[in-house]
Design a protein that fits this description.
This protein is mostly helical and 179 residues long. It has 8 helices and no strands.
Length: 179
């Protein structure tokens, strides 16, 4: 069974919208958790991200979230780097996409923090996380100087930053080999 996973479909899952979670924030949380723990199950993510609201999910909603988890895991692991942030498409206004990007970053930081705890951040992670934290505070009410180009640059910065963070964290958890 295949699923059409669209931003709008995920936004409409009742417990997500009732709990105030956007699709972007949920995907950010999932991505952060997967960067730290590649074996994370969708049940762990759903339970943590939605809490008691997870009990209200229909079986179709759970299957959709399972598919999103599996897809995100495989895209993060792909050596060709096809991973992308789960955000509204280009037909949405720039302010809606900017707000979703900020929410995605908030979710990502939350997912990383939850999964990492008090551990030290390796390599370039600290600086990247500080930049992502700044992006998480973006004001969706853009000034007239804000452009599609600026949004695209931020989107790509976060996308690549996630891949760098994942790589750095993977190096930390790989067993060291004796030569």
């Amino acid at each position: 069974m295949t699923f059409e996973i669209s931003y709008q479909t995920l936004e409409e899952i009742a417990p997500c919208s009732e709990a105030g979670h956007s699709a972007a924030e949920l995907h950010g949380t999932l991505t952060g958790m997967l960067c730290v723990d590649r074996r994370l199950t969708s049940e762990q993510w759903i339970s943590h991200a939605l809490g008691d609201e997870a009990d209200d999910l229909s079986s179709a909603d759970v299957q959709l979230l399972d598919a999103l988890c599996d897809l995100t895991r495989s895209l993060l692991a792909n050596d060709e780097y096809p991973f992308d942030l789960f955000l509204p498409d280009e037909d949405s206004s720039l302010s809606i996409r900017t707000e979703a990007l900020a929410e995605w970053c908030q979710g990502f930081l939350y997912g990383l923090g939850y999964a990492m705890g008090d551990a030290e951040w390796p390599g370039d992670c600290t600086e990247l996380l500080q930049d992502i934290q700044q992006i998480s505070r973006l004001d969706p009410e853009l000034s007239p100087d804000d452009t599609e180009e600026a949004y695209s640059e931020l989107h790509e910065f976060v996308r690549v930053g996630v891949l760098v963070i994942r790589t750095e964290l993977s190096r930390e958890t790989e067993p060291h080999r004796l030569h």
